[in-house]
Design a protein that fits this description.
Layout lengths: L7 H7 L13 H11 L12 E6 H15 L8 H12 L3 E8 L4 H24 L3 E5 L7 H7 L5 E10 L13 H4 L5 H5 L1
Antiparallel strand pairs: 1-2, 2-4, 3-4
Helix pairs in contact: 2-5
Length: 195
């Protein structure tokens, strides 16, 4: 499934969040290779403020039970058909990485660590895309559920900031527009020159 290597620019501009995965499993070796490169993200003080709980292959099949328990409200009351529909958002993916960061009591460090981990997540997404693997960065409310945290071994003073899904896809979503530069960039000094 490996495609031709993309340039950095191509990877940034062509990457899409995939929501409709085709159910094909993602090899653990691919996830490991992606993570090994992704952790070269810039991070303040070289704190490397991230860790990952990864489920792929048979482990992902088992992890689906955890996602059903905490990600589908009242799942025991649903018909098998409705439960299958609700689980589709999880079952289509081929692997998942839960991204965990320390929650430093100091605001500056906490924000730096969150920013660094976000940069690492972007690296993961770009590296996966380069391998023909789609990703979707999800932040569902159940990530803070105490029993989910316990099941994943998340410690006090840590936070799950992403449920990063990996998977293969049959169709690439269309690009969504970005704001033009003139709406988001102000050049320092221009206002005073016009006066």
């Amino acid at each position: 499934m490996n495609q031709q290597t993309l340039s950095v620019r191509e990877a940034i501009r062509t990457r899409r969040s995939i929501k409709n995965f085709n159910g094909q499993p993602v090899d653990q070796e691919d996830i490991e290779a992606i993570l090994e490169d992704a952790v070269w993200a810039p991070n303040h003080g070289n704190r490397n403020p991230w860790r990952f709980v990864v489920a792929s292959g048979k482990q992902y099949t088992g992890f689906l039970e955890v996602l059903r328990e905490y990600g589908v409200p009242n799942w025991k009351e649903l018909t098998p058909e409705d439960l299958e529909k609700q689980m589709k958002k999880f079952t289509g993916a081929g692997a998942v990485a839960m991204v965990i960061v320390p929650e430093d009591a100091r605001q500056k460090e906490r924000l730096e660590d969150f920013a660094a981990a976000s940069t690492c997540i972007q690296n993961i997404q770009l590296l996966a895309w380069d391998r023909g693997i789609g990703t979707c960065w999800k932040t569902p409310v159940f990530l803070d559920h105490p029993k989910l945290r316990e099941a994943l071994g998340v410690q006090s003073g840590e936070r799950i900031i992403s449920m990063l899904q990996f998977g293969y896809y049959d169709e690439i979503p269309k690009a969504r527009p970005r704001k033009p530069l003139e709406e988001i960039v102000t050049y320092y000094g221009n206002a005073s020159e016009e006066e």
